[in-house]
DNA sequence: ACTAAGATTACCT
DNA sequence: GGTAATCTTAGTA
């Protein structure tokens, strides 16, 4: 039924090791009502960022800083950071409270609110392929860092099942350390995949 | 205190 | 293919 609220993404699935969560988030829906307007998309590309054992992760440091602190908190919370001083990037915190780890959302297939996305993106394409682009399209900024994803204005909700045959695993993009680790997950052939 | 690098993107030649 | 934009963190002193 149209208009019926979507089911929340099951919280227990986020309290697992980060690579497993990155795989499980494919097909889930990220739903924003920032500014009172609904924009949403199906997650089609993710990357896992682990704890101290992962040199590419913001949680690799021994010190907890203002930027990375929510990575060490409970799962199911948004970790939003500024990339290159310019773009916002959105993550879903995974694993147990006290363990650093998060899943970077790298690509969405647009679902609802495409006109609003076009406005926020100022006409640029693609709308939601790439972590900075999708965050802009959904109106996500640093104000949502630490926000619980079980409630408005930014929710993680139940979506579609993605079979293993449709999933490809590759090394992560745009990093210079731990470049080999196959921690990027994508749904083959979807337009929302960043590359 | 100073400097370099970074989980990116857009625009230039 | 090259580089600017712009802010946080980490390394060096």
Assign a percent range to the helix content: 10-25%
Give the overall form: globular
Distance between the termini: 34 Å
Overall pLDDT: 96
What order do the helices and strands follow? HEEEEEHHEEEE
Q: What percent of residues are in strands?
A: 25-35%
Q: Tell me the Rg in angstroms.
A: 15 Å
Q: Would you identify the regions where 5 or more consecutive residues have pLDDT less than 50? A: none
Assembly state here?
Answer: single chain
How can the largest sheet be summarized? 9 strands, antiparallel
Query: Number of helical runs?
Result: 3
Give me the count of strands.
9
Q: Helix- and strand-based class?
A: mainly beta
Please render the helix and strand layout as text.
Elements: H1 18-24, E1 29-32, E2 39-49, E3 78-83, E4 87-93, E5 102-112, H2 114-120, H3 131-137, E6 150-151, E7 154-157, E8 167-170, E9 184-187
Antiparallel strand pairs: 1-2, 1-7, 2-5, 2-9, 3-4, 4-5, 6-7, 8-9
This protein binds a DNA duplex (13 and 13 nucleotides) through strand 3, strand 4 and helix 3.
